[in-house]
Amino acid sequence: MEEAYVRLLCPECTKDWESTPTDLPEHTTLYHCPNCHASRRLAEFTRTDRDLQTLKSLG
What residues does the DUF7836 domain cover (predicted)? Predict the structure, then answer.
């Protein structure tokens, strides 16, 4: 079975990365960019609506 992943993008510094939903907190949790330490709800870091839906369903 292939493991799902979520693509993330920092709205401030534009760093992009991927993570598995199980390694991330809930989408409403305050999250910090690993690059610039910007703080926003995790949902605001998802690149697409599909990434957000994956996070909600598998997280």
Answer: 1-58
